[in-house]
## 1
Amino acid sequence: MAMSDDTAPADPGASRALARQRHEVIVAEVRRRGAVRVTELATLLGVSDMTVRRDLEVLDEAGLVDKVHGGATLRDERTSDEPGFEAKSLRNTREKHAIALAAASLVRPGQAIGITAGTTTWQMAYHIVDIANLTVVTNSVRVADVLHQSRRDDRTVVLTGGVRTPSDALVGPVAVGALRSLHLDSVFMGVHGMSERAGFTTPNLMEAETNRAFVDATEHLVVLADHTKWGVTGLSSMAPLHRAAVLITDGGLPAAANAMLEEHIGRVVLADTSFSDDDTTHERRRA
């Protein structure tokens, strides 16, 4: 039943009871769907967007959900937990957009590139639609859809096939088999987590195997990972840090993490989240 905030009761105790009811509904909805938007919760509860945002702040502070831009996602730190595509797409949108722009700037006409599944690589796809004579190999239905919608006679898109994961990656033996004989100029890979000990990781064992096949298909691995991925360890490793030729991240990384990454990776690109048209990235290179 919708709970309107237009006729709030005068009794403070009743107000607290209504807030608790809303919080229970919100948490249940986030757990059921993995992610939910402010506008959807406002409609469900019959309250204003502002009321929902206040509720999400309370629930975020209590550790029950993660408040993100435009909504909330499920909070779960297990190494085997794999959020769905919608949940991940609501997280760190500004950083992901900046990283996607920086990654697209590395693509040149005539190249054959690989793009793994993920929300940041999906954003990247929108920024390469006008690059001529590209061959794109991907295990992401979302990436393939973006490229197919922008039709070009000089572009080839190869979708690997395979079993579909919660994050919309096609994985498994079919995907790995499609990649084993390929030689790509660059591979652009999204990750669930990165750390000095575990390298680049994912919570999905089959996705890890498929992404390792992508890594083996190139000498030039570009990893796309916003600062929240640092210190997160998924169940399975895809590549050690030093395997990446380029890491594109953002300025939210701690200084110590930046320094450590520069020791292992030849080129670290810090994407500019201010989205200046004239200067979208800052780079730090290992001497």
## 2
Amino acid sequence: MDKAILTCALTGVLTNPKQHPVPVTPAQMAAEARDAFNAGASIMHVHIRMQEDGFGHMPSWDPDVAENVVDAIREACPGVIINLTTGVVGKDISGPLNCIRRVKPEIAACNAGSLNYLKIKEDGSWAWPPMVFDNPVAKVQQFLDVMGECGTHPEFECFDVGIVRSVTMYLKNGMLKPDMGCAEYNLVMGVASGMPCDANLLALLPQWMAPDSIWQATLIGRAEIWPVHQKTAELGGMLRTGLEDTFYLPNGNRASGNGVLIAELAACAEKAGRGVASPAEARQMLGLRG
């Protein structure tokens, strides 16, 4: 099988830095990225946090902050590939588009379909007010248009089986231009109202993807995600983890940072008989312009 591309999701959207060891400042993001890079991650998936309150609990779409964070990561990890988040609720997507235009990441997330974003408590009440993570086709096209302008490769985020099938229709429709790299699906498993983190389901999904595409799995949860990471490696998928997705190692212990999580992901690839792709190899596999 091809080598495995490892992606590190350095920090999440709303994870509280006072409760969990997520990086926020450019220096913190760079240090965590360096640890992950040294452990084998070629790609850093980057969320930007508000800096001005020194707390970093809320997301930011300030292009200046995005540039400072991305520049720090690039300096700390020569040759690294930046994958910028874009997820935003509502019609106004000017924030993520401005960030793409400013930092020109080689990859950006492209959320490929809508989802009722729900979570339920043990007593049956909602963990937060039910909301829709809205990603209609017109919104997807807006993102693809700007990614095309900036030389950015879209990574299609798929939260449910129907979204996987929708991406295949986008490709048939010609929404992914030939110079934007190969088709790439990211199977997001573990969101409470999306696909469960299940190895049996994972094995079924490649049949609904376009020929010659690349896929990876984003697995959200605790120690139970690691057998599914192993299955991903065995099926030929690309691998992603980081403090955005989990705080737990395979043995159930809490992770001290991103580097140890990526080291475990590299071990999954090794157990499956696969090497770990360098940044240059990852660029070639994904057809990146850089």
## 3
Amino acid sequence: MNPSVPILCYRNISPVCGITPEEFASHLEWLTTHEWHSLPLDQAIDYVKGAPRPPPQSYVLTFDDCYLDNWVHAAPLLKKFGVCASFGVATAYLHDGPMHPDATTPGTDLRGLPVARDAWDRAIERNDPSAFMNRTELRALVEEQGHGLFGHTHTHQACFRSDQPIERDPGDMHPGVRGIYLEMRDGLPMYPSGSAYAHNGFWPASTDVLLDSRLIERTTSERIEFCLNEFTLCRERLEEITGTPSRAMSWPWGEYDDVAIESALLAGYEAALSMDCGANRPGTPIFAMRRVRMQGGVDCRELKQRLRRARNPLLAGLLRKTYRRPRA
């Protein structure tokens, strides 16, 4: 039986939110001590597509969203332990700037740097993408440190997946909703949200929602056009950084459907990362490669259990969870 290659999914590494640098360092130390071998994402894609099996105890390490704290705290730890990783970029928030110091830079005060919990509000509401890595840092990850990049769409856009209003404070909604309304104001009606790539969605009929609160449903052909534009823009902008076409993307919020997959194919992608649980081996759906979600509070004992389940094809199959579209 062909073994499974676990793909770990991290997001932010920070002393103030997400996984702490100490937790992340303990994960990398455990992986290294127990002879786990990090693979480039491209090698895992090739394996799922039928290439020879990788070395025993192989895994892939990925980060979604490309927060600045990945550069400040995660990258120096990856270098210390000799681990390669791949970073998912939402390319609408690419920006230029000098390389920030990282946590290993002597005498550096990192307290003033923007953090991941503010990243989306900053970027969408204030047109300030500084909580994400800039182009200089992304190029350094690839050219100097040997890591990879993959697409995470262009804008990481949400939509309303239902036109039935809900009682919820706008401040509690995911920041992606701020891209549905051109301007967030008190009194705006709220609806169940989802990925704009996996749902046709309901959108404001007017830019002035206080005068016209109607929603209109997007057609499938309109969504295909939207997805194709987003995925192509993302792929082209990543190629400007790396010099090579990006082979993979990851689905925002782990949501996808046949329309999204077809659009990704048309945009030139070969594979996509989901948040489904299960095995990654020949025969795994290439546009729904499975990942192991990592979050704060996961100690090395739990990491070991998650890897054991994801590595064993039988266990991974028994515990498989596949994305299902929520009811409207």
## 4
Amino acid sequence: MPPIIQLEKIHKTYRNGDMAVHAVRGVDLQIEKGEFVAVMGASGSGKSTLMNILGCLDQPSEGRYLLDGIDVSRLGRDELAEIRNRKLGFVFQGFNLLSRTTAIENIELPMFYSRPPLRGRERRERANKALQLVGLGPRGDHHPNQLSGGQQQRVAIARALVMQPALLLADEPTGNLDSRTSIEIMGAFQELNEQGITIAMVTHELDVAHYARRTVIMRDGLILTDKPVESRLDAKVELKRLEATHTQTLTPSG
């Protein structure tokens, strides 16, 4: 079975007049099916550019990119749009939910662009299944303003999963969340990964990266290190620890 992601000597150069900005410099990277990889790096390290390439939102200047066995390096705009819809699910820092539609309707949105189109009953069944997958089954009829930040992010994750993508891409998925909710969302990612879903996540937070199984650190457009997470955090354990700390704080001494 080929890797879900295979990058071979990927370069990305932007032009600003006569000046060339080398955002990514000859990156080789493989992500196998079922992995959970965190990509880290300081501002300007190339991690966001790399994520855009992985998500077929940008194309490399040089090199080859195989996504689930398909060479997407030189595909046209329409072909890339189809690949994004079929092969990739996106979760961003902002939830990007439509405020006037329910959770279940937000999840159905990607299926309106599928080819061939899905019928209404199938769209609703798949949306309900995705909502169950992220633990929000009873809240399908709620609007975003009736949901907490963590619940809105879970809806966004369900929307990313509804097309059954080969790869889930998460860009700073806890950036707008408090500490407790961030742990809950990372727990949701861990549960999805345990079910076999492949995840690549960009984050600047070291503790968030420790919920992944593998960490790739970038600097100056290159991969500096690529290794398994040694002291991996378990979201369920961290939530219990947080609750215990909160209880101790509230309990009066003496």
